[in-house]
Amino acid sequence: MSLLPRDWFHNDHPFNDFFHLSKDFQQSFFQPKIDVTEKKDHIEVLAELPGVKKEDIDLSLQNGVITLSAKIEESTSSEEDKVIRKERRTGSIERSFSVGKGVSEKDISASFKDGLLKLCFPKTTAADEDTKKISLD
């Protein structure tokens, strides 16, 4: 006799529970993974973008924030193909991070090779920023 209940009629898809991912873990796939490294005179950001084409990447700078967005295209399969499981994501991904308001688009270098996006921009200090102090009551 088993101490754990088992639904003997629920064996149609035995791997559904095994491959089930939590909502938080699934959502992390839509943000590219990045490494940020401080060099002597600049900051380097490496972003993983596997399966993304160079022409599908968009970089924008607004108010000291770089926004990286990209499209991941769905692979095509014919009508007679039966997809057993589909885990690879398709759609749009986006990631934003601050570079400082003193940095312009001319200060940023970007390259993309083998699914890895590399951004370099100069370091900024707190004195470079237009920081406003807020007094406490």
TrEMBL record:
Coiled coil: none annotated. InterPro entries: A-crystallin/Hsp20_dom, HSP20-like_chaperone, Small_HSP. It holds the Pfam family HSP20. Residues 25-137 form the SHSP domain. Belongs to the small heat shock protein (HSP20) family. PANTHER family: HEAT-SHOCK PROTEIN 20 FAMILY MEMBER. This is Hsp20/alpha crystallin family protein.
